[in-house]
Amino acid sequence: MATIKDVARLANVSVGTVSRVISNTAQVKQPLCDRVNAAILELGYKPNLTARALRTKRIESIGLILPDITNPFFSQLAKHVELEATKNNLTVMLMNSLDDKELEKKHLELLLTYAPRGIIVVAASSGQDYSFEGEIPIVALDRDFKSYPRIKTDNTSAAALVADHLHSLGHRRVLYISGGSNVKISASRQSGFIDRMNELHSTEDPTIVETLEGNFNYDTGKTLGRKILSRKKRFRPTAIACGSDQIAIGVLGVSYEMDVKVPKYLSVVGFDDINISSLVTPHLTTIRQPIKDLAKYAIELLLSDIPTNEISLQATLIIRNSTSVPYKGAVKQKKV
Amino acid sequence: MATIKDVARLANVSVGTVSRVISNTAQVKQPLCDRVNAAILELGYKPNLTARALRTKRIESIGLILPDITNPFFSQLAKHVELEATKNNLTVMLMNSLDDKELEKKHLELLLTYAPRGIIVVAASSGQDYSFEGEIPIVALDRDFKSYPRIKTDNTSAAALVADHLHSLGHRRVLYISGGSNVKISASRQSGFIDRMNELHSTEDPTIVETLEGNFNYDTGKTLGRKILSRKKRFRPTAIACGSDQIAIGVLGVSYEMDVKVPKYLSVVGFDDINISSLVTPHLTTIRQPIKDLAKYAIELLLSDIPTNEISLQATLIIRNSTSVPYKGAVKQKKV
DNA sequence: CTGAAAGCGCTTACAG
DNA sequence: CTGAAAGCGCTTACAG
Question: B93, A92: Cβ pair inside 8 Å?
Fold first, then answer.
């Protein structure tokens, strides 16, 4: 591999000059500049990133720690983070915390010793019980992490969108399956939905909202879905809103098994718009998180060090085939 | 941040000695060793990885280039690569080629300038039209890349497993939906299936095999599935084997839409065992690739530089609910 | 605007 | 077994 010295020799300038034309950091007279560029081309010179990093004390990478790349939402996030990073000539180091706070901490510490331009963490834990020295910028994505600046979707207003949609279709008895009220973003979605539903309530036109809690996964959808659909029809909601697409797809699964046609007899809404949402049958009505922007702002924040607390982005409702007006027979229902 | 010098000073030894105890590369007498370790602990010293990399000309990372982390199979692969890398104290740099050979090349070149311990590429292209200097080990995972050593699943024998399964259930008219015969691994699966099916054929007990070609995605399953299920029953296969789970899930989708009960009237088999396969309805019978081993061997190969051409791992058949004996009415059928 | 030189934090021959 | 020192390939004050 040719080094900066080789280039300097060939171009008959000092290494300092070569460095300057490469980094475009200072004025270099045209003739010198040309000679340097010619030499770079001739030698096929590529700067040694490690050496540069040692001097500047910054590696041209960002770290990305997330619970599990296998989760469709996270993999989409990771993809856009990588794409956005590449635009900025940054490489991304990926690590799975497996939702293990110890591992998350270890990853963070290792990453810190690489001195990347910044670290994005989709947190497994709140990280309250330890701290880092050093001035490497850290950004929390999606979930809170310590008191680092955070980029997130406005979950509350997004969930309200779901409530609006269902209500406007005519649903008055709905059920919310939550990813667990102990998880913060899950709680935001849940309260966003319920609060809006309550706002929509009036004595003349009453709404009934129930909530069931589980996790963000398929199993929750299956288990709780089965429970709900086992009820007598008059005690069933006409629509189920879910805290995640996974839950919703689980609900779709039991609906099929129990022969409850969606959306005819049951409307189902997800949250996230993961890839398969548009492919399952019926196609899932859901909330699309602005993943690309989430990634873009996260990286921007990392590179800008403009002090920021939180950036909250708006999500959009994607209406597909899993929601419709409630079936005619959905007459006066009793409260469970 | 404390440096090796600080440690040396505190421990009252030379930096060389500190380096030696850290890297465990030479015998250091107990007392010195103890002093050094104590100093490291006291200062919370972490070696500067960049400086080490500059000296050793190797960064403790591996590169991972794959078409799209969003593809469930790749994300599982990536996860296990990362887990395995972490075990070896290696960090992974992730890049999506987006199936673009130019981008793949650019990524590769960038990665090379980082001088990682090795690069794993799940190739978008055969990479025939360019070459790299340098001695950084490269390993092809899943798909061929140049003439680098390759780790893969034995697609041919895996597909034969599917043929065996279907035949033993009693299916005699089957159809294979391929991911395209121009893609090498797809062709292996296809021929593995067809060849075994033909071996199983005899004049007393004939089998009929058809093939349709598309891509590895859901759409292919939907489109071709719809085409097949639109045929009159007597011209329909009793089972469809697919080149990927995505295709199979697409087929499941149209089966539902067209009200063809699976597996009662149609058996469906996938390939890959991506996460959702066990969650779709009905749960998909499929081939499980030994993803963990794929990842493990890839990294082993990278680190060992034992000259190897190809490692081919055996897959396993996972029988779930999308396959069963063909329905009774599946009597004498005519050839299409 | 340009060059000479220091120095980033390590590792590793080279002596002893 | 240990220390002194060179050097990895850059960047960046410091002079001029």
Answer: yes
**pLDDT band at residue A264, thresholds of 50, 70 and 90?**
very high
- Find out whether B65 and B95 touch, Cβ atoms under 8 Å: yes
Which positions on chain D have an atom < 7 Å from some protein CB? 1-13
On whether any CB of chain B is under 8 Å from the CB of A180, the answer is: no
pTM for the model = 0.90
Q: How far is the CA of A5 from the C1' of D16 (A)?
A: 23
Q: What's the Å distance between residue A60 CA and nucleotide C8 C1'?
A: 16
| Dist CA A193 CA A195 (whole Å) | 6
- The per-residue pLDDT for range A139-154, each reduced to its tens digit, is 999 988 988 999 999 9
Fold of A155-289: Rossmann fold (3.40.50)
For the domain covering B155-290, report its CATH number.
Answer: 3.40.50.2300
What class is the B61-148 domain?
alpha beta
User: Would you call A258 an interface residue with chain B, using a CB distance cutoff of 8 Å?
Assistant: no
Tell me which of A45, A56, A70 to substitute to probe the interface with B (most B C-beta atoms closer than 10 Å): A70
DSSP assignment of B265-301, as one string?
A: T-EEE-SB--GGGGTSSSPPBEEEP-HHHHHHHHHHH
Q: What is the pLDDT of residues B198-257, one digit of tens each?
A: 999 999 999 999 999 999 989 999 999 999 999 998 899 999 999 999 999 999 999 988
Would you kindly state where each structural domain of chain A is located, as residue ranges? 4-47, 57-148, 155-289
Amino acid at B333: Q
